[in-house]
Amino acid sequence: MLKEPIKNGIRILFDPEKEFSLLNKRSLEPVVWDYAIVLAASAIMAGIFNLFFSIAKAFYFDLLVDISIQYPRMINYSIGRSTSIIFLYLFAGTFLLFFLSLLLRLVFRNMKYTSLLKILMYSGMPMLLFGWFLANPFPLAIWSIFLIYTGVKNHKYMKIRKDSIEMRE
Question: How far apart are CA 124 and CA 145, in angstroms?
């Protein structure tokens, strides 16, 4: 369940032109499913990484600096902070993506909204796959902007009949 969406995300990062050209053939539902799985896994990994990093930092300070640490309180605080990071990832990955899509919809008026959403979900893969352990997400944001550009460039505009089932998108 987790392996295939992550493989798909890595393929997007290694060969974006090919994957964005294949994106035109995929419907919205599998793209959303892959994005949701990678988003949930990334949120959990960010929480776990933060928890272990906080415990390791406290243990380091306890050993090398003359500090008395109350471990039960510190672990309670770290668990709460890690849980907050998990919810921040889930919030940012859903609502901020939605608001970004609304802003970009003003720029790309001739593109279908579902196509724009699929491009944005594919473009968020660098942040989802690597954002949980980097201190500075700015290089990943640049990479995501490049992927948005690649996705829009490779997008194929299709004419759809008005009585077709494809009009639902």
Answer: 9
